[in-house]
Amino acid sequence: MFLKLLKHSFLAYRRSHFFEKSLYVKLLIGFVVFTLLFYILTIGMALPRILYENIPEQKPHNIIFSTLVFIMLADLLTRSFVQKIPSKNILPYFHLPISKNRLANFFIIKAWFNIFNFYLLVFFVPFFGFTILPNYSLDAFIFTITGILLLSGLNHSLTILLKSSQANNYYLKLILILLIILFALTGWFYSEYFFRASLWLGNSFMEGKISTFVFFIILIIFLQAKAKLNLKKGFYFLIESGQGQKILKKNKNTFIERVFDKVPVYGKYWDIEWKLINRNKRAKNNLYQWPLIFPVLVFIFWWYSEENIIHMLALLILFVGSYGFFHLQYFLSWESRFFDFLASRKICFYEFFRAKFYFYSLMAFIQCLILLPIIIFINPLFVLVYLSIMLYTTGVAFCIMMYTGVNNSTRINPDAKAFFNFEGISGNQFLMILLVLFSIIPFIIIGHIIPLENGTFWTLLITGIIFWVLHPLWIKKITNNFYKRRHIKLETFRHN
To answer: Is the alpha carbon torsion for 298, 302, 303, 305 positive or negative?
Structure first.
């Protein structure tokens, strides 16, 4: 039965309408992942010698043991956003005499074959191979690696349990994030105690203390059993009917929607855009991950507070555009499910596209207002840096995305997963992102040529302002291109 279900999973992937595109993208992603793993392996091999030379008073493996808790905490936080739960597309099996217990067992076992359960070994195996294996024994090395696998299994089990719970799932995620933040802050102010506890845990693994191994094994078994129960309950949870019921019960508009109702001309389009984001799983999950941009930007500005930040421009463009930089990559694909309705109504698409531009630019502006006091505190010069990149991104980058999006948008499933979802991705879209990122190179060159301090940022700022002033013209051009291709898009969306 297990092999048959595994075969069905492969056939479902093989027969998907975007199989070839997904395969090419996965090969590209696989190459990138392989490259990253190679660098991690290199670090694991080189770090012991670096620690020997720079911190000779401490043993290298003890240094890593002292930070083991924080490493696993970062792993858990990453899993909570990236690792997907076992697939629950089991409706075709309901009318067959198949035990729900077997189905749950299949998904639980299949979930273990995940790269997140093994990628840490790429670092730890060579590192401990150069530190523990030659100085202690083979048993100590095996015990340590086994302990790392148990910690990875614990994070895996927590992630599956969290994401397989149907009731108040988002509240559980929020609680987990708050606990992790609280743990991180406590570790920051009372780091000595956490380092000692982490060191004790690592030494317990290396010394092969049976009680430590038994504790983690029992805990993993308990969490796996609870996750299995959640999966069995989730077999009868129909996402479509659940979402529809939630929408029908929503009789009153939210505060944000009431504000949109008072905005002339564009308010009705903003209301549609907000509903579209919040009533689709894929777009909504991306929205929930938007606040993670804030600490990343703060860290970048803090890290480069005394250095030249110009070589981080490409990375900053990805973040200062806020949620719109990711959402506008698809532009019209989000409306593909109800495009027949839009095309048959007397909608002014010029106002519709203009409202989209204002909506996502407003989100970037709100993000700027929130971060501005922190940026001023870190380095007042970074105010110019942030404003120039934000105006350039919302002006030039958004223009490129919307202009190419009219031609490249394809039908996507907005209720699909948000991470590692390659539906809707195309080679043209990939080139468009590269075009946006590399478009800053001429400005860097000009900034070094003109006799003006911070010339690069001033040229970016002026260019962004020009695109903002001229935005009615280029949005009108995008609208005209759309009208010429509207019949093609209708045929594409119906075909897919």
So the answer is: positive
- 412 closest CA partner among 399, 402, 401, 426: 426
Residue 249 within a domain: no
**The total number of structural domains that make up the chain:** 2
Residues 384 and 437 grouped into a single domain = yes
Claim to verify: residue 114 and residue 137 sit in the same structural domain = yes
Residue 325 and residue 397 in contact, taking contact as beta carbons nearer than 8 Å: yes
Quote the DSSP letter at residue 311: G
**Residue 250: pLDDT band by 50, 70, 90 thresholds?**
very low
In a domain, 483, yes or no: yes
Distance CA 220, CA 350 (A): 56
CB contact at 8 A, 306 and 298: no
CB 283 within 8 A of CB 327: yes
Helix (H, G, I), strand (E, B) or coil at 269: helix
For Cα atoms 22, 26, 27, give the angle at the middle one, nearest 5 degrees: 120
Show the domain range for 151: 2-242
Tokens at 306, concatenated: 């005394």
147-156 mean pLDDT: 93
Q: Six-digit token pair at 78?
A: 């990453």
3-class SS of residue 89: coil
Task: Report pTM.
Answer: 0.60
Contact between 352 and 478 under an 8 Å Cβ cutoff? The reply is: no
Per-residue pLDDT band for 414 (boundaries 50, 70, 90) equals low
In a domain, 398, yes or no: yes
Q: How far apart are CA 26 and CA 135, in angstroms?
A: 41
Residues 236 and 293 in one domain: no
